[in-house]
Write a structure and sequence with these properties.
Layout (H helix, E strand, L loop, with lengths): L1 E6 L3 H17 L4 E6 L1 H4 L8 E4 L19 H4 L3 E7 L6 H8 L3 E5 L9 H6 L28 E4 L11 H13 L4 E5 L13 E4 L3 H8 L4 E4 L3 H8 L4 E5 L4 H4 L6 E5 L10 H12 L3
Parallel strand pairs: 1-2, 1-4, 2-3, 4-5, 6-7, 6-9, 7-8, 9-10, 10-11
Helix pairs in contact: 1-8
């Protein structure tokens, strides 16, 4: 028997469903677990999925079509799948398509919460019963052999929306102030940060795989970022994390972890967060023994 998990959202959204996937695993012990989603996201799941099906594959397109036509090979692929956990909107054709193919147990939930409930708790609400506090924290595990990297302070100036970004010139000033304190600084840059030029001499981690980025950040002394998937990743690997929020509500979307500090300026936006606000929190983390 096998069980299918569908999630096609962004990195941060995937990380917030990890605790719920953990509960689903417990409820379906002994079954193979298949992810229909993004292979890069499956790479950071522990325990690993038994299989990963790339949701962008052409053969899966029919599962999301209102025309009701699916690839002839799909029933064979899904013959062992008896249950499915779907993070999909109510209008999605996916639940009906899976039911038509013969999947018996289908649990669906909207990807985003409808009210001011923390997103991790919202996903866990699918599973009644007691959930330990430590099981409400998303975790990504990396092996020691993967952590061959320097150990600087890491800055990630981007996100999925310009409105969520702290002004870049403040990141630059923060980097200068940290360097003046003797800290080594590295910048995480990907497609969302195209056109950004960090200060000369700073290390740049550009377009790393999610798994490699997780391994590097796990060794860092500090991470500073906006409301982004990379910030959720930092918290999930246990790196001391400073997360800045201005556009979105941190009560819902803030990353969780014992070493996470959230700086929020919901009423004034990201420009309402000063360099001193961030530097104070950074120093508190860096002075920890």
């Amino acid at each position: 028997m096998a069980s299918l998990v569908y999630h096609a959202g962004a990195l941060g959204d995937f990380i917030t469903v990890l605790p719920a996937i953990g509960r689903w695993r417990l409820a379906h012990q002994g079954e193979e677990l298949i992810l229909l989603g993004k292979p890069a996201h499956a790479a950071i799941s522990a325990p690993p999925f038994d299989e990963t099906w790339d949701v962008e594959g052409r053969m899966f397109a029919g599962l999301f079509s209102t025309r009701g036509r699916t690839d002839p090979a799909l029933p064979g692929m899904l013959h062992a799948v008896e249950s499915a956990l779907l993070f999909a909107w109510g209008e999605s054709p996916l639940p009906g398509a899976l039911a038509d193919i013969g999947v018996k147990e289908i649990v669906r939930q909207d990807p985003f919460p409808p009210s001011n409930i923390p997103v991790v708790d919202y996903h866990l609400s699918l599973f009644p019963g007691h959930v330990r506090d430590e099981d409400r924290i998303p975790r990504i595990f990396v092996s020691i052999t993967e952590m061959e990297a320097p150990v600087p302070v890491v800055l990630h100036p981007g996100s999925g929306s310009e409105k969520k970004n702290w002004p870049f010139e403040r990141f630059v000033e923060l980097a200068r102030r940290l360097a003046d304190q003797g800290e080594r600084v590295a910048w995480v840059l990907g497609p969302a940060e195209e056109g950004i030029t960090p200060p000369a001499g700073d290390a740049v981690w550009r377009s790393l795989s999610i798994r490699e980025l997780a391994a590097r950040v796990a060794r860092c002394r500090l991470f500073v970022g906006n409301d982004s998937g990379v910030t959720h990743l930092s918290a999930a690997v246990g790196c001391p994390t400073v997360a800045m929020f201005g556009e979105s509500d941190p009560r819902i979307w803030a990353p969780r972890g014992k070493r996470v500090s959230v700086i929020a300026s919901v009423s004034h936006g990201m420009r309402g967060i000063s360099i001193e606000d961030v530097l104070t929190v950074c120093r508190n983390f860096l002075e920890e023994k």
